[in-house]
Amino acid sequence: MKIPLAWRQLTHDKTRLLVALAGIAFADVLMFMQLGFRDALFESAVTFHKQLQGDVFLISTQSTALIAMRSFSSRRLYQTLSFDGVASAEPLFLDTALWKNPQTQATRGMMVIGFNPERSLMTSPGLEGGMEKTKIPDIVLFDAASRPEFGPVPDLFKQGETVETEVRSRRVRVGGLFTLGASFGADGNLITSDLNFLRIFPTRSKDLIDVGVVRLKPGVDPIATVAAMRQEFASDVKILTKEEFVEFERSYWEQGTSIGFIFTLGTAMGFIVGIVIVYQILYTDVSDHLPEYATLKAMGYSDWYLLGVVFQEAVILAFLGYIPGGLVTFFLYDLTRNATSLPLYMTLARAITVLVLTLIMCLVSGAISVRKLQAADPADIF
Amino acid sequence: MLNLAKSQTSEPNFHDSPQPVIQIENLCHYYGTGSLRKQILFDINLTIQPGEIVLMTGPSGSGKTTLLTLMGCLRSVQEGSAKILGQEIHGASKSEMVKIRSYIGYIFQAHNLLGSLTALQNVQMSIDLHEHISNQEAIAKSSQMLAQVGLAERTDYFPATLSGGQKQRVAIARALVSHPKLVLADEPTAALDKKSGREVVEIMQRLAKEQGCTILIVTHDQRILDIADRIINMEDGYLSESV
Ligand SMILES: Nc1ncnc2c1ncn2[C@@H]1O[C@H](COP(=O)(O)OP(=O)(O)O)[C@@H](O)[C@H]1O
Ligand SMILES: [Mg+2]
Q1: What pLDDT is stored for residue A375 in this prediction?
Q2: pLDDT of A296-343, one tens digit each?
Q3: Which of A299, A301, A381 best probes binding to B when mutated, by most B CB atoms within 10 angstroms?
Q4: What is A217-252 written as a DSSP string?
Q5: Residue B63 Cα to ligand 2 middle (Å)
Q6: A28 and A117, same structural domain?
Q7: A157 and A295 fall within a common domain
Q8: Are residues A81 and A201 in the same domain?
Q9: What domain range includes position A126?
Q10: Structural domain tally of chain A?
Q11: In this structure, are A38 and A62 located in the same domain?
């Protein structure tokens, strides 16, 4: 077995190695956080869509995202019932209203969702059974993952207290909790019955709906059904499968806003910080040991061998730095999740992405610093 | 050792044939280009036979190191002929030069040991390059070599914890462990005090005689001239033989 020179060179100076690993870990954490935030924000934008229980969705062609919904005639929705594979068609109402914090009286906008309580259109955790209560006038269900600015509603409710406040100047009482979470468009959410919804928004008509939720009979292909509906319908409604509906919202935030760009830029910054740090370490290693490396060349070691040493050092640094970086990230994800109620989780895909980025980062630094090896001229060491 | 014996068969055997280890004819060397071009070596002729210990002396700046780097394939020959271990190196390719280097042991004024490796591992670096033997064998061989230079107790020391003379002895062990045919040393005692300087040269002389290798030492050190079979003198780029 040959002497593992790269390993020895790296580990000989423990302090320098620790500084290098801290630097790489820092770059990794930066990339993990930026990518994590980006994914979490996009994910939070579609949590609502994913919780909807339907196979085909109808929206107005003028709707661009959940924050900018236009209503359309419910007649369009009921037209779908004429299709063979359709089991049910249910209207869903969406709007934003000011909620008065029951403790501070400060108001803040939140999303109000209304649908027929007889139909379980949503699968939000905690919602089971809750819809029943919204059959009573002016009873609403409160999103326990809403931002804290709305008041300590979940805590008060769990303690058995009556939580009463005003939504859009109408007095309502909290009848239950569910979990959906804040998104770009809404800091908090309310669910109630379609009738209560129309009580809160008295100017709205029950014939103008925001989302049509169509369920298909078992075994019916949604893609084919959607294609058939598009053939038949006038172009004033968009007909989407569930995947397309989720993608519709996601692409609005990904492409229609600079959020994606900002976080990609943040990731790139982490990447560049990493390159600079690793370059510093590798370059210093080469230039500090120039006479020794030149001596190895004089002994008959080839340039390839020395190149290999530098690149091995780069790869070792990448892996060793990634481990603490990943561990710190787990901790920070947890912290952020609790502080922001963003769905920030480590995913295998992101773990691999950052590992690959770290490797590229270290190899790029290696490639820049090996140029210094050419200065190791064995003719100069005598 | 088996491997070493095998590898030797592919190279000329210097003990049976009268072929010189170094044969230089009409060698000239220049530094710089254009109007700055300056001739450093003038019409050098030198033949060194196997087993000889040759000392080269001469004032600083006279071209000794330049000649040594040319012979050691660390620099390309520009003019004239130089046969090292039987092979013409004028016009040799980079990979041929790297190959020839591995048959030569170099000892420098600075020891140039790798600071991240122990004395033993530094010596082992030379074995790694030449032989495919197991780790245990390489360690055994390295520590044996270190014992021969009087460092049996210091095998696991890092260079930073060794004295100048000890480091130079590790460098000698590294240069000789693979039984090179030719050892080139450039002022190996310059950085050492009198006593350890003398010791180092005596170790080199003894090992060279045991292994039958040829040694060329550049030195200013008057006290070590007695170990030489032959002394040559460089002055202003001209080489002359002392008698
Ligand atoms: N790489 C180089 N480039 C230009 N000139 C050099 C270089 N190396 C040595 N010289 C010059 O060549 C001459 C001989 O140097 P050198 O061979 O080192 O002599 P010595 O080893 O006898 O002291 C000196 O004048 C020195 O300045
Ligand atoms: Mg010199």
Answers
A1: 81
A2: 998 889 889 999 999 999 999 999 999 999 999 999 999 998 887 788
A3: A299
A4: PTT--HHHHHHHHHHHS-TTEEEEEHHHHHHHHHHH
A5: 7
A6: no
A7: no
A8: yes
A9: 56-219
A10: 2
A11: no
